[in-house]
Amino acid sequence: xxxxxxxxxxxxxxxxxxxxxxxxxxxxxxxxxxxxxxxxxxxxxxxxxxxxxxxxxxxxxxxxxxxxxxxxxxxxxxxxxxxxxxxxxxxxxxxxxxxxxxxxxxxxxxxxxxxxxxxxxxxxxxxxxxxxxxxxxxxxxxxxxxxxxxxxxxxxxxxxxxxxxxxxxxxxxxxxxxxxxxxxxxxxxxxxxxxxxxxxxx
Length: 202
Known about the structure:
Layout: H1 2-38, H2 41-51, H3 56-77, H4 85-105, H5 109-137, H6 140-171, H7 175-201
């Protein structure tokens, strides 16, 4: 009986360690989702219309800037080594924070075009290398656990997103971006915690 109990105990310890290891990554994913819940397309439309008294042309110009940045970001990420994933997506996060700060300052519209270009560039780098980093430090089973744990939460957040953004933007068009900035700063802290946990567990 003892060997069986020992195996069961070992399995329980293994599961517990895995759960402790992935909770931080689940928190990272939910926090990352919250950034883009607030900094959504709806927030963009409200921001341009209210702050810049803009029209569909100005919104279209911003969207074009974002699309160009996505292409450029994909080109850049293809030339960065996978071994530098953590550093790359951390830099991407800092670039995104810079975008949010510029938006909060409401500079002339030409700088807003540049800001949203920078923001999407940072987001593209972050998105790609964050996923690569996950696969470097956690197993396939743990990745499945992370995705399974946050999927329902993510769906609920996206369903509530239009109402949440509408309420917040109605108070102040810049407020969604301020919330996004707060969540991005929290992400930087969580990345460091996650990195230290991965070093300890390796």
